[in-house]
Design a protein that fits this description.
The complex is a heterotrimer of chains A (416), B (942) and C (92). Chain B has 21 helices and 50 strands. By secondary structure, chain B is of the alpha+beta class. Chain B is elongated and about 110 Å long. Chain C is built from 2 helices and 6 strands. The interface between A and B is large, with 119 and 117 residues.
Chain lengths: 416, 942, 92
């Protein structure tokens, strides 16, 4: 069913009787060509692109709970492509371009809103590092503007320019960055994939792989065995747990990242800001809530909840940057499980087991990567070759010394 | 008899008009007292709304408080303690609250069903950001924030206790009495400004007399116990790991008042007792949101506690408890009657019953039963269980936080007698004796579940977010059948009241749609905070200049006197340059500092460098493990440059280490890495080499250290160092070190090191003499025109010398990249050596640190530029590397740069383009040696 | 969180700096023929499945002890805290 203004009008006057389920609730078939494990943003996007761009047929997405319940449903909704290393920048810029055409592709309004993102800098070395990054962005076809203090002040006059412990000197601005209504991304991809015949199977937890002679031929699930020619895993924070069922040890740790939303207010913040002297980034949702976050709590966790010190740290950063938000009340805080990799960059690769493919290590950049991750994973599953923007995302890069380390922190996941 | 003090009138203004209330009023009760019915507009349809509750669950009466040149939006009128001079206004309307132009949304509601926005606004593409979204943003939101800094102060603190009791109703008070009498340290916290819980709002008897007497005497006794801390107006908002609770204490509602407005408490509790009561729920029938429709418990609160009459009223209920509400008509659902619709613009005037009967009413009290306040039991992801008899979710003892007990109405014990029984039971579990059980009412619940009225009209479930029964049904029809999906699709329970009155009804509507029971349909998880907490309170005093600590160098005051501009380096403030009168800009000062240093002598405060004292028989062997080069055989009295790798083979830090004796070394680290390097060394010492005899102490803060550089450095120091110490070139050559005394007996250490490339020393004295030493050196150096120089000149001179610094040791570069591959000892293992051998770090086409000068002298180099071969397109594939440091060299009178270039070592003399797109500065540069100035190092050995 | 330091008693976790999997104390033999592969596994592959986790915490704002903490990473419950140096010496 296509959504259109006319359709909405018709339904409004006839009591909304004609709306159909956004995706079907099929029972699993005995076998598929492709099984994607994980009904999150990346898994659903993979299914959508596999079916719509790579002519994939007979595809299932298996989700242990309800779709979109992982990080796609618990993030700070930011999209951007402002990376330093070409291996990342090319990929994330590809992602941003896919975001820009997402609604027309999916016929679903995920509210992609390119209101701009500014990463603030507070020192000369920080400025120069942003210049290097901005130049890399431009070389990859992205947009970047290096602002001085006045340039930032023009957009955000209410930031703390006058009494700051770390004065704002300027910022790296990506006008095409912005936010997206995160849940709608999962639903939009699900709806589009479903319309191409993809079976989205909720409440179906994978409990094991069927590996015979070094080849993965299917999965065991809580709803029975399902055979597959190819199995792709896109389970983010659960990567280590799921891949352990294939006896694989990964260069990953799972960490909790808290995110926060305030009560709603009339429009206050036009775009996205990232503080360069504290752990704080923020935007304002269309409903009016300030959506913000900071650093991960810093210890391995599968608990989907964090502790107070990080909440305080984030709010201290927020108040230092924009002291006008003191009376904005924090409404909800929640935690997501991040698949923190050893260099802060992701992996989209075949495994040493034939027919088993892995997508993970998104750290806390997974949301903005959703379209490109899905596209590149679909490319890999369909063609057995990496997508051109994801060639560097190999699992063996650590053993070969080809790390892609944006922050320069080395094998220390909680610092990425 | 009410609990307001009619002898203390309080003036306040509402939407600009003056009114009067009394001490003991909330803003809500004061508004009702003055007959104000419409207090706000709903989020989506802008429906007129009145006060619905008497507590923190209020979904409708969100108001903006004004004061102190600022304003505070979205305050619940029901939790604001009235004070004299209070100013408040209604919010979320265009025009007045009584005639809101955006109420047109209500007429358009068929087009604005759940999730409508996901299906539209897509054509044409550009219109979303330009037209639709801005309009939505303006209409959404609630109140408005001030754009000025929050004028209020907030504090934070820690508290510890044996037992944290959350809620001061009958069960909480009795538990506090029992445990308090037994000597346990107790914190009793309640969100209300008056303790007593529901007892304040009901007409009950305890031990045969007015329950309020029992409350008063309990509080009076608790106040006499030194081990009990009573915390009214304190909301326990979150439960965290290992018995840590977050609490928010409100000192005043007045904006801009003196002292802290609120205090954020981190409470460390060995045990906690949740006695947070229960929240009444409404019933979703058509037009159940008109002003004048209230929860029955709120009607009793306003009548009994605040003394406000509600004439011409009716009650709709499905259980016995609400029957005590003072009303004129009772509609008892259990007798087959319920309400199918209401009428009345701007306030309820009439209700229509399913029997066709119509009743004229001005007030309607509604009760669909009670939901225990289980929120805090869920913060660690516990889930409550459904109780069929009570028709509500109750805590599941199987998955409570380990230290928590739940009692009273929060545990489903709804009668006061039941609350007291729970209190005595939990007291035993806490290991304290209980007193006599107070006699109180013990009415059974007797409820027939009734959630909503089926039909075509909208019945509100979530009042604030305008989620109706129809929205939930539609969501289910579209396949959103998981509770979490329904929440997200309809925004049910996502408003500022976090679904306190709506979640369970929403679940009931969904259960009917799915044909399941409520527990089969699911539950929702409650997340912190219980009620919203200001960001300002979480930040406390850590804002503005107090965001982070400030570290000052020993020469700070002196530098300030010399006109220094300071720069943040981590938490340190360092002198960046020291301007003299007549200098036109920072470059003038920096150029002068460089020239004066290179021509005579300059002094720079390098105390911020990390200093680690390393002692022990195995100290040399230990250093061999952590540095790539060898230190074991370093002679006593000598220093050596050292490069340290991370285990992944990437450069971690560099610095010099001096050997003061066979068993004693002094290591210096860069300023930025002082902490991480020390942590790394302790890691190596304790975990990797636990049997080595080596001990580490950080002495960064204990020693003031100055670099003294320039051709006259020795002559100056000879005037400072006590004469018995020979520091001539022969006795104290390049890379020598020693302990000596200065200025007539002050303990000092001298290192002959050079970062600038000049004849240079670093001299350190105990930090308390740092200020005196710089003053003495400048005074003694007058004859040489000795100056203090800042970090900019330091940077220029190190770039002139081609030394790598933080810009080059950026966490991605290897010894090879840095041109230090030759330093790596082939005779020993060290941290990082093995993985340095990986193919990606050793193959062809590695980046090399080289120097750059503009092809056309006079052109400006900028840092962060990428190198592209002449004639090539600026594509990622053609990227040859990047500029990492640039400076204007006053010695060479040109810009110079350091940067990493693919195969750079083999490309000397090539011309490339340094492209800086973001600064629009593309410069042709020549590849040169990074050692621009005195490449053979003659100056530092003289 | 609260970490019960073997020498200092219960301390707030915010005094500590976290490193990760305790196997980081088992540095491989650099002279082995398979050293590069051994070190790759040692440094990059981490124990990271739900349930009990032995991990390293450093008392940075305290006595600078490295501790081996046994913590359930699904519930955050801590069941054991040891001085890392003792563990390193005993070789477990």
């Amino acid at each position: 069913m296509r959504y259109s203004a006319l359709k909405i009008f018709k339904e409004a006057v006839t009591g909304h009787k004609g709306w159909k389920p956004v995706w079907r609730k099929p029972a699993p078939k005995p076998s598929y060509d492709f099984i994607i494990i994980g009904g999150g943003g990346h898994g659903l996007a993979t299914a959508h692109y596999l079916a719509s761009k790579f002519d994939g047929k007979n595809i299932a997405v298996l989700e242990k709970g309800w779709i979109g319940g992982g990080n796609v449903g618990r993030n700070t909704t930011i999209i951007r492509s402002n990376y330093l290393h070409h291996e990342n920048e090319g990929f994330y810029e590809f992602s941003l371009k896919l975001w820009e055409g997402l609604e027309q592709d999916l016929n679903y309004n995920a509210m992609v809103s390119q209101r701009g993102i500014i990463n603030l800098y507070h020192s000369d070395p920080q400025r120069d590092a942003y210049a290097r990054r901005g130049n890399a962005m431009i070389m990859n076809g992205a947009d970047a503007v290096l602002l001085d203090q006045d340039g930032v002040r023009k957009q955000y006059p209410f930031l703390n320019f006058d009494n700051a412990r770390f004065p704002i000197k300027g910022g790296l601005w990506q006008p095409r960055g912005g936010t997206v209504r995160h849940d709608a991304v999962a639903w939009g991809y699900a709806r589009a994939a479903d319309s191409k015949g993809v079976d989205i199977i909720e409440n179906c937890e994978v409990t094991g792989f069927d590996i015979q002679n070094g080849r993965c031929v299917g999965v065991k699930t809580t709803r029975g065995k399902i055979l597959a020619k190819k199995v792709g895993v896109a389970v983010a924070g659960n990567s280590s747990r799921v891949m352990a069922m294939a006896d694989m040890h990964l260069p990953l740790e799972s960490h909790v990242l808290q995110a926060f939303v305030s009560e709603g207010f009339k429009p206050f913040l036009p775009g996205v800001i990232t503080y360069g002297a504290g752990h704080f980034y923020v935007s304002q949702s269309d409903k009016g809530g300030l959506v913000f976050g900071g650093d991960i709590d810093g210890y391995n966790s599968y608990a989907q909840r964090g502790n107070l010190p990080v909440v305080e740290d984030v709010c201290e950063g927020g108040m230092s940057l924009m002291p006008a938000i003191g009376k904005a009340r924090l409404l909800r805080m929640w935690g997501g499980i991040m698949d923190m990799s050893m260099d802060g960059s992701p992996m989209i690769d075949k495994t040493h087991i034939d027919g088993l493919y892995f997508n993970g290590g998104w750290c806390y950049g997974g949301f903005k990567a959703t379209p490109a991750s899905g596209y590149a994973f679909a490319h890999l599953l369909a063609t057995d070759t990496p997508h051109e923007t994801a060639r560097a995302y190999r699992m063996d890069r650590f053993s070969r010394g080809l790390m892609i380390d944006e922050k320069g922190q080395g094998a220390q996941p909680n610092l990425h | 008899m009410s609990l307001v003090d009619y002898n203390t009138p309080l003036g306040f203004t509402w939407n600009g008009k003056a009114y009067q209330g009394f001490e003991g009023d909330t803003l809500a009760s004061a508004l009702l007292r003055n007959g104000i019915k419409i207090v706000g507009r709903s989020f989506k349809y802008h429906r007129p709304r009145g006060i619905m509750t008497a507590g923190s669950e209020e979904p409708n009466a969100l108001v903006t408080l004004i004061g102190g040149g600022s304003q505070e939006p979205n305050r619940r009128a029901t939790t604001i303690k009235l004070f004299d001079g209070l100013e408040a206004k209604s919010q979320n309307h265009m025009g007045s609250v009584n005639f809101d132009l955006l109420a047109v949304n209500d007429l358009l509601s068929p087009f604005l069903a759940a999730g409508f926005y996901y299906k539209t606004f897509m054509w044409p593409r550009a219109f979303w950001e330009k037209l639709y979204e801005p309009a939505i943003r303006r209409a959404a939101g609630l109140g408005a924030l001030s754009a000025t800094p929050d004028p209020d102060q907030y504090d934070k603190g820690f508290l510890h206790c044996d037992v944290l009791i959350i809620g001061a109703g009958p069960s909480g008070l009795l538990t506090a009495l029992n445990a308090g009498r037994a000597g346990k340290s107790i914190i009793l916290a309640d969100e209300d400004f008056r303790m007593g819980g529901r007892l304040l709002s009901e007409r009950e008897e305890i031990n045969g007399s007015n329950a309020l007497d029992w409350v008063s005497s309990a509080i009076a006794e608790l106040k006499t116990l030194p081990n009990v801390r009573l915390m009214p107006r304190t909301t326990i908002f979150g439960v965290y790991d290992h018995g840590i609770y977050g609490g928010l204490e409100t000192m005043t509602d007045q904006i801009g008042a003196k002292g802290a407005k609120q205090v954020l408490w981190r409470i460390y509790a060995k045990k906690s007792v949740l006695a947070a009561g229960a929240t009444e729920r409404p019933i979703a029938f058509a037009n159940n949101d008109r002003p004048g429709i209230m929860l029955a418990s709120a009607v009793r609160s306003y009548a009994n506690r605040f003394g406000i009459e509600m004439p011409n009223s009716a009650l709709l209920t499905n259980h016995d408890d609400a029957l005590g509400t003072p009303v004129d008509h009772v509609i008892d659902i259990r007798k087959g009657e319920h309400i199918v619709d209401t009428q009345g613009r701007g306030g309820i005037k009439q209700v229509t019953l399913n029997t066709g009967r119509k009743l004229s009413v001005q007030h309607l009290a509604v009760s669909g039963g009670w939901n225990p306040n289980v929120h805090l039991t869920c913060h660690k992801r516990g889930r409550p269980k459904w109780d069929e008899t009570l028709a509500c979710f109750v805590p599941d003892a199987q998955n409570l936080p380990a230290e928590m007990h739940v009692i009273g109405a929060a545990n489903g014990s709804f009668s006061t007698h039941g609350a007291f029984i729970d209190a005595n039971t939990v007291s035993e579990l806490l290991g304290v004796k209980s007193g006599a059980l107070p006699a109180a009412e013990d009415a059974p619940v007797n409820i027939t579940p009734f959630w909503y009225v089926k039909g075509n009209k909208r019945g509100w479930v979530d009042f604030q977010n305008d989620v109706t029964t129809k929205d939930i049904t539609l969501a289910h029809q579209e396949g959103f059948s998981s509770v979490e999906h329904v929440k997200r699709y309809t925004t049910l329970g996502m408003a500022t009241d976090q679904g306190k009155t709506s979640n369970v009804i929403g679940l009931a509507v969904l259960a009917d749609a799915t044909g399941q029971t409520i527990p089969e349909t699911g539950t929702t998880i409650f997340r912190p905070p219980y009620t919203p907490v200001p960001i300002g309170a979480f930040a406390g005093a850590h804002r503005g200049q107090h965001f982070k600590p400030t570290r000052l160098t020993p020469s700070h005051d002196f530098a300030a006197e010399q006109g220094a501009t300071f720069v943040e380096t981590g938490y340190w403030k360092r002198a960046q340059w020291l301007a003299r009168t007549g200098e036109q800009g920072w470059r003038d000062s920096v150029d002068r500092e460089v020239l004066m240093t290179r021509n005579s002598v300059g002094i720079c405060d390098v105390s911020t460098l990390g200093k680690i004292d390393i002692q022990g028989r195995d100290a040399g062997a230990f250093l061999n493990k952590v540095y790539v080069n060898s230190f074991k055989l370093l002679k006593v009295g000598k220093c050596r440059y050292g490069l340290m790798l991370r285990e992944d083979g990437i450069a971690m830090d560099d610095g010099t280490t001096a050997r003061l004796s066979e068993t004693h070394f002094i290591m210096t680290t860069t300023t930025a890495k002082a902490g991480p390097v020390f942590r790394h060394l302790e890691f190596c010492r304790q975990l990797l080499f636990p049997d080595m005899d080596v001990h580490l102490i950080s002495t960064t803060d204990q020693w003031a250290q100055y670099s003294v550089a320039g051709p006259n450095a020795r002559k100056l120091l000879q005037k400072i160092v006590d004469p018995e110490f020979d520091i001539s070139n022969e006795a104290f050559p390049y890379m020598a070190c020693g302990q000596m005394t200065v200025c007539g007996g002050t303990r000092a250490r001298l290192f002959r090191l050079s970062f600038s490339g000049e004849l240079a020393y670093e001299i350190s004295v105990p930090a308390r003499y740092g200020d005196a030493l710089i003053r003495e050196m400048i005074a003694q150096g007058k004859e040489f025109d000795a100056i203090m120089y800042g970090t900019e000149a330091l940077g220029v001179m190190r770039i002139e010398k081609g030394h790598a610094a933080g810009n080059e040791l950026n966490g991605t570069t290897t010894a090879t990249n840095l041109g230090l591959g030759g330093f790596v000892s082939q005779k020993k293992d060290c941290i990082g050596k093995v993985l340095s051998g990986r193919e990606g770090l050793t193959g062809e086409d590695q980046l090399n640190l080289v120097g750059f000068v503009p092809d056309k002298k006079g052109e400006t180099l900028t840092n962060g530029a990428h190198f592209i071969n002449q004639g090539d397109d600026s594509t990622p594939e053609n990227d040859q590397g990047y500029m990492s440091s640039v400076a204007w060299s006053p010695m060479l009178e040109t810009y110079i740069g350091l940067g990493f270039l693919t195969n750079g070592k083999k490309r000397m003399g090539e011309t490339l383009v340094a492209k800086d797109f973001v600064r629009n500065n593309h410069v042709e540069v020549k590849v040169v040696s990074p050692h621009f100035f005195d490449p053979d190092g003659e100056r530092l050995r003289v | 969180m609260i970490i019960n330091h073997p020498l200092l008693g219960p301390r707030d976790a915010s005094e500590f700096t976290y490193l990760g999997d305790a196997s980081l104390m088992q540095r491989p033999n650099p002279k082995s023929e398979t050293a590069i592969d051994d070190f790759y596994r040692y440094l990059y592959l981490r124990e990271n499945t739900p349930g009990e986790h032995r991990e390293l915490w450093y008392h940075e704002q305290g006595d600078r002890s490295w501790l081996v903490v046994t913590r359930n990473i699904s519930t955050h419950e801590i069941t054991k805290v040891e001085l890392a140096r003792d563990v390193a010496r005993s070789g477990t």
